[in-house]
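Bench notes, bay 3.
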Amino acid sequence: MTLSARSRVLARGMALLALTLAMTTGATGLAGAAEAQAQPVAEGSISFSGDAADYITQGRSYSYATASQDRLSATASQDGGVVSVSVDAANGEWWYLDLAAPAGTSLAPGEYTGATRHPFNEPTQPGLSLSGEGRGCNTLTGSFTIGAVELGPNGYVKKLDATFEQHCEGDVPAARGEIHIDNPAPPAQLDLGLAVALEGTASTLNGKATLHGTVSCSKPVAVQVSGNVTQVKKQNLIRGAYDTSVACVPGAPVAWTATATPSGSVPFQRGDVEVEARAWATDPDYGQAVTANETVAVHLRRG
């Protein structure tokens, strides 16, 4: 039976849940773990094998490569201290590999000895974890060597050459392997711009304030624009929120219009208001939220 990607993630969690519960409450937890969206690997491979009594490999050899239609994904933590790789093989097998530098440092070429199970390694120790196919170590010892590593923004892994050795429960039998990732240069990050027009309208019919402006972007994205309008008239504080969305394309500013409804019984009126504006979009390459903020004085005319 072939599991869906979601089922595989669930299976991994269930397989390791009992192992996690066995760890003490004093473990370091997920500090420094990968936070960004995993990126598909354009060109890469991972292979590993184990001794006959090794629990993870069951004494077998495994080899996966993008050239063989196996899907590899990789992501790094924001501080560059952890690289996580997942394998979704063409034959339905699935694996995960984590390599972690000691806390406060970034992965760099060199040998990392004295590794224990990531993410429960002590801050002064490197972390390692090879798991998959429903099997994971409760505790482990091991080491890995980074031959080359290049990271980009938002967890992008451009290059990784590494070898590793892992002993489940500190036993003598080991799993040994190597990984190679060679991705193109990372995509540029999304740039988002926001402008609010200095004039708007206050409706004499319904008391709402209509605002205008533009957004700009370096990639095609859906942009959400929202904020608040505040006005003081005759000792009355008038406030209202607005929200709209617009399809932004690079090349020229794209117009947006939104209407703020007063939260109380006093309508917006002709005169000056303070407009707080926020534009929000998700970078399609990295899955990261990008925002732009503006606070300006806007003059409302009757409309």
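Next record in the batch:
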Amino acid sequence: MPPSIAGNIILWFRTFTAITGSGYRRHSTYRQATFAGAFTNIVFGFLHCYIFLAVASGAGGRAGGYDAAQLATFVWVGQGLLAVVGLWGWTELADRIRTGDIASDLLRPVSPVVSYLATDLGRAAYAVLTRFVPPVLTGPIFFDVYLPTRWPTTPLFLVSMVLAVVLSFGCRYLVNASVYWLADVRGPMLLWTLCSGVLAGLYFPLRFLPDWAYVSLWLATPFPSLMQTPLDVLVERDGVRTQLGLVGLQLLWVLVILLACRTVQRRAESRLVVQGG
């Protein structure tokens, strides 16, 4: 590899990690909000867990192919994963487009897609320590949970969790970028909130649906790859080959969505008119 190319890669990596670190430090300042969020996740964990256990009990001990311990793990890890994936609440890009501040972002040497992705990875890293760990540790104290029995499961889950974070960022970036054309993010954000909650497996496992429904959702939309895939991998709902296939599909959606982000950003820059200047 030529020295100039290697130097550019090293410089890019240093810049990316620096932005990621700034994202971590930025979100670490919101300590009270972090504590309140973790407490809320734990409360909802109890509610969801009791509901799902009742469903499994009424169905003869299994529901949607999950036993009671798998459902308990699904709920408690899902409550922690919600904050890490970060489905909701991010409108920074939309706000900067609306006010015209996005113009300063375009003058920087780093693409807005890369810059905001690095910042979001820093946010996710902080959420792992402060929002993911508390529910995951709380669940086993009060419920019998399922622990992985196959060695590939844990690394696959970690890979799947990272892919879910990147995919969530890409989807939220596209929602925010709609302001380039619509000038108001409230409509797209409401639609995203409804779809990501129901179709991602947050409120209930998608395997509770008929086979044709959840398979269609998995293949035709990125939503199950946000929550359902990493959780199914962790509770070993399927065999290793199927787990690898689900993570592979997740990776495919990440590539498609990031490419869409890059394309939308380039087209938006070619027509951008900063309000007031």
